[in-house]
Amino acid sequence: MPHVSPYAKVRGGRKAAVGNVGRPPVGWALPGILFFAVFAIVPLAIAVCLSFCHWDGLNSPTPVGTDNWTRLFKDPEFRQAAWLSLLLTTVSWAFQTPVALLLGVWAAGRQRSRTFLSAVFFIPLLLSTTAIAMLFHALLDPNFGVIKQIGPWFGIDPNIMGSSTGALLTVAFVGGWQFMPFHTLIYQGGARQIPEVLYHAAAIDGAGMLRQFFHITLPQLRNTITTSSVLMIVGSLTYFDTVLIMTKGGPGTDTTILPYLMYRTGFQTYDLGYAAAIATALVVVATGLSLVLVRFSGFGSMRSTREGM
């Protein structure tokens, strides 16, 4: 019988123990899974079922097959709302991402005024969306708002909310003003995880701040950018209260995005079956865009940026 060293068992057990470090049992995720199922999966399943019914919110739902979906794909108002939602999402992403990225990298530094300015900058994140929308609605009132006095100084039409382009850009700006601190916080956390030894080595090689930013900071924040972008896309596609309070889908239907169209269809015309179809389509669009972003960014197969350090 071959002799087996007692240290072999110790080494094997130690290796197994090390392999399980940081991996709690699946049961730890059970509360989160149950919460997600009750408040996300079940309501979504109900909405999908209602999308195949006619329901006015009072009487019992009546199955109508695929009538709501046939109407959806033929409805020019739905196509316009879908286009406006994608346009608003693109504008919001293009506006928020560069600013939040730069502010996050700056906030991760050791400047003397960093703590105070960061705290001030995060204040909009603490306010409700309704309060912020009402605030900007009052400020941008063409008759009594501040825009009437200071708008002409900068060549801005006081009735900026009266034009289709101005109203859409205003909605994107207000949403970005509130939620940009959240994405700044994400980039700040990501920037603080970058090993300082990389910057020291780059400085020794003669790389300036600009080259360090493009060759070290941006590559190290690739996965952080993907995470922030997914959250930003989903959030922009679900804008509702800002549009409801500031524009009510106007002027005309120029800011009638999918969430507002869903609200108007369900709670103003009481066609809740068709509204459920719009809601389901919105979920499909948001999920599809998120999956495409994750797939082509390589986020699904990401590895630690500190690996090998």
Automatic annotation (TrEMBL):
InterPro entries: ABC_transporter_permease (IPR051393), MetI-like (IPR000515), MetI-like_sf (IPR035906). Residues 82-295 form the ABC transmembrane type-1 domain. It is found in: Cell membrane. It is a multi-pass membrane protein. The chain crosses the membrane at residues 33-55, 81-107, 119-140, 160-180, 221-240, 272-294. Keywords: Cell membrane, Membrane, Transmembrane, Transmembrane helix, Transport. Belongs to the binding-protein-dependent transport system permease family. This is Sugar ABC transporter permease.
